Amino acid sequence: MVIEERLKELRDKINEKVPAGITVSQVEFEGPELAIYTDDPKRFADEADLIRILARDLRKRIVIRPTILEEPEKAVNDIKSVVPEGAGITDIFFDADTGEVLIEAEKPGVVIGKNGATLREITKAIGWTPKVVRTPPIESTTVKQVRQFMRSVNDERKDFLRTIGRRIHREITNKDQWVRVTTLGCCREVGRAAFLLSTPESKVLIDCGEKPDNNNNGTPYLYVPEIHPLSQLDAVVLTHAHLDHCALIPLLYKYGYEGPVYSTPPTRDLASMLQLDYLEVIRKEDKKIPYTSADVKSYLKHSIVLNYGSVTDIAPDIKLTFHNAGHILGSAIAHFHLGDGLYNIAFTGDFNYGKSRLFNPAVSTFPRLEALFMESTYGGANDMQPARKDAEEKLYETVNKVLERSGKVIIPAFAVGRSQEVMLALEEGMRLGKIPNVKIYLDGMIKEATAIHTTYPEYLNSDLRNLIFREGLNPFLAECFVQVDSNELREKVVLGDPCVIITTSGMMNGGPVMEYLHNLAGDEKNALVFVGYQADGTLGRRIQKGWREVPLGRRETIVINLEIVTVDGFSGHSDRRQLMNFVGHVQPHPEKIFTIHGDENKTIDLASSIYKRYHIETHSPMNLETYRMI
Amino acid sequence: MVIEERLKELRDKINEKVPAGITVSQVEFEGPELAIYTDDPKRFADEADLIRILARDLRKRIVIRPTILEEPEKAVNDIKSVVPEGAGITDIFFDADTGEVLIEAEKPGVVIGKNGATLREITKAIGWTPKVVRTPPIESTTVKQVRQFMRSVNDERKDFLRTIGRRIHREITNKDQWVRVTTLGCCREVGRAAFLLSTPESKVLIDCGEKPDNNNNGTPYLYVPEIHPLSQLDAVVLTHAHLDHCALIPLLYKYGYEGPVYSTPPTRDLASMLQLDYLEVIRKEDKKIPYTSADVKSYLKHSIVLNYGSVTDIAPDIKLTFHNAGHILGSAIAHFHLGDGLYNIAFTGDFNYGKSRLFNPAVSTFPRLEALFMESTYGGANDMQPARKDAEEKLYETVNKVLERSGKVIIPAFAVGRSQEVMLALEEGMRLGKIPNVKIYLDGMIKEATAIHTTYPEYLNSDLRNLIFREGLNPFLAECFVQVDSNELREKVVLGDPCVIITTSGMMNGGPVMEYLHNLAGDEKNALVFVGYQADGTLGRRIQKGWREVPLGRRETIVINLEIVTVDGFSGHSDRRQLMNFVGHVQPHPEKIFTIHGDENKTIDLASSIYKRYHIETHSPMNLETYRMI
Ligand SMILES: [Zn+2]
Ligand SMILES: [Zn+2]
Ligand SMILES: [Zn+2]
Ligand SMILES: [Zn+2]
Ligand SMILES: [Zn+2]
């Protein structure tokens, strides 16, 4: 069936279900959604259940596009009169092309109303379709810039979404039935995640990360024919924003990819922030720059965001659903339903099956599941991590000890994930009197990453959401946290009172942490506290191993007198026990498990342990292999 | 290094080694060979060992191209005066482009002389480089047409060989090291053999056959991206001429392939014969024709023939060597040496590890071997075949019995392989008085296939070669064999004396065998003797299973009164015991074995049996997978 016939058929079905008198002037695929154009958006809004019923019966995600619109100036007043005062609206943007009005508010829930009642009231008043986003409680340059940029490319995006919509809903022509996964990176290694999922009809790339490695360019095997031409890729799916998963996505656009990148909304924002920072770091190191910020913009322009649980057509024979992975903000397990009940496969990305301060444990229940690709970072037989509680106790002890002797605590940490966990632990420690009230300085991109966290509290775990929404206590906004944004302030911190400093980079290869080390390493009252994994070859690892003199640049040497402490247990990954438990609990039990994203011995050990314990077929694939699923 | 520099370097090295006074005017890659152009071909011929030494030191196959040539008319006389009378020269063809003179003779050995002495004498006399081929003792239309066609495209071939030569010797640019095999067909099934061997630098396709299957188009998975664009394939390697290995090679040219197909010389001739017949059969069945005879010509034009044991560069990092596979005339195990000692992998094609009347057992010793792809046609635990001797006894008994009662024996057989085995058994039976002297009629393409066998006696086993060359007794030329080439003769055979009829098709789905069945099935004195495997769904299988009435066309029914006999043991494949023995004997022992070309349960059973007995890692791959070797 050609696409026009298909749309006509859908329009006829919609007309059957819509009450008499409501006109549907056009239906159109826009990205994964079905857009219904109507002259009567207000009456559509009147029928509270209509959209839900259409979505269920047509098995499509539905959006309503009004064709007759109120004047924006009048509409602003109408919105403000419908929405209760307390919503804290900070911006209203009208997009005449889509008939959408984007409302930015401090309390999006108030704009939405119970079960969307207030949203419907807005439509009834003005005809426009409202969309609501949160005003970041901490100002975020990234969020602001992403939102501005997305507005500026609105017209292009509309064309893009229509093109993609029609591609997604194209007719299936090949009669063969098979499902394959090709490993383009991240097998028997950590880094450069890239997996190609293919059927006779479609091709989807899952992640496209980098691997910091001096001997190599650190790119996945993008030169092999399996993935070419890139223009024929249907979709890129991004599990989360860490660079080993997202760094090289803009490179795909440079090489000719023109399709969408699906991710959760926070992953999109974090990824673009980290990609730009990645370019900055490479530029400073005088290495070859793989792509430019223009390619990051291409990525954003082609991004399509999906929330957890939303089942979405991304190719004629592939439905994608994201589920919470518990690893970092917005991190997702990507579940693919292939064909009409033919096969189901999930890629965990990085996941934490334990509960953390920020996130719920990773989801382990799926409607169906035949094959699972799971990370194995801590897959080795002895890769046990202390309980989170014990880790926090050790952190408190260390902080108490150092502050007592009037020292300063330096905590090198990744901007995204680890920093926020440590922030929350320290904030609670102070609130509950377990550690003294001192300033906690945040340097590097930590503040910015934290701001993005506060923009998406829906992605945090239930305890933290309750704290924020019910008790009105957003720990990220606590007074103890001070952003270091100038050299003057950095100097004051160094010279000032005992305090805690959380700063990038996490493995001490560059970043503001070097400045603190330079000034504070000589004094044995201070302490350097590692809360994250220090990779081989990094300065962090060297200091951890006991080096007492480290080079700074080419001329200087820093003498390490300060105390060195390692606090394990703040990891965003499942440890060995949690990985095994996840496999034991995952519903339904998959037929095949592939262990990836881990050192060679760990992926092999985990695969054979899973096979022995659960009698599930396992593989520890190598890069550049293709496995047939069915 | 660019190719021009490389050639200059080679030329310098050659000049160092060549005695003073011999000028080398040019060196050039021509296909896998290095062509040395010289004004002094006669002096080159004087230095008996020079070419051998150059080949060894440069690790290249060397050909000498004279630049100054004697007039062909005079040269003919000179050749005839140099070559001894008994050679039986039947044709001489001068190719001024390459400076080669092609001598067709009944006894090529006499033209060559001991260790090539006579050939050198020819060059010394005329300057031209002689190449010798055998005059088919039985006239072969195929051989004649192939040779004529190759002459007619001489100019194009010269360009082609230079282009390929330069491609083969191009500089290696990629620094990665890996070797992969992608299965495009023939896994857990018999038919449509197609395996892609790839490295970062090169791609080689091994076989490209069809699978007779009504539900499917029977083509390997040529639509997957791994093999595209076809124009970037470095080489196609053909193990042998059966249609499940060669039928779709011409299709590659239709789809844009422009590179060489490597095979032994008899495989090239047999393949083109069977491909043309394949087109004819499809045309008669009113099915969609996949390609035309023009594509078969493209294949021939791009074919490069190699003899067993000749180590040949086919890509910058791949050397190919063919070894006897014992299966049919020219059948080869293809051994690939990858990189500079990086990896070695062999594809058995179809092979027979037992000795047959025509061929020596398959070669099982290789210089090096890490991975082996082996056929599993008879890989099932119970797939034992009777000894060849017992099979022949049973055939003799049957023939005796039928002839005694004045009946006729119909033996349906494949044109290539099985027919010649049965011919030789029957001829010896008559010669030694084990069965009566009657006519053995050959119908269908059997005579033509036999003629091709007699063109290449070097490819037959040592006993048969001795019989032919030492004892001057070519059993294929025995008087008992009579070609049926007209309807009149066919009628005479049917009405005539007791006799044996060997005729195509082997599984009785069409071909002249139907005519014999039509006329002889009603008489219980006659017998139908199956010597080959009858696949499910064929008329042969039905009759074997006991059907006593079979349809002929749409209107007629044949009543089966004649005796039905099955004689197992004439197979060209190794049976289960021989497959296991082959693995036990193969030197050196490979690290990995892949069982292919067999029904699903047989490949799986063979793989697990090999693992249990020999502790070698085995896989029974599925189609569309990619295995990383290193
Ligand atoms: Zn991660
Ligand atoms: Zn990761
Ligand atoms: Zn064969
Ligand atoms: Zn075969
Ligand atoms: Zn395997």
From TrEMBL, chains A, B:
Region described as Metallo-beta-lactamase C-terminus: spans on this chain: 572-630
One GO molecular-function annotation for this sequence?
zinc ion binding
Report keywords, A-Z. DNA-binding, Endonuclease, Exonuclease, Hydrolase, Metal-binding, Nuclease, RNA-binding, Transcription, Transcription regulation, Transcription termination, Zinc
Q: Could you say which enzyme class this protein belongs to?
A: hydrolase
Q: What ranges does the record give for the region KHb, renumbered to this chain? A: 70-137
Membership in a protein family: Belongs to the metallo-beta-lactamase superfamily. RNA-metabolizing metallo-beta-lactamase-like family. FttA subfamily.
Q: What is this protein called?
A: Transcription termination factor FttA
Gene designation per UniProt? fttA
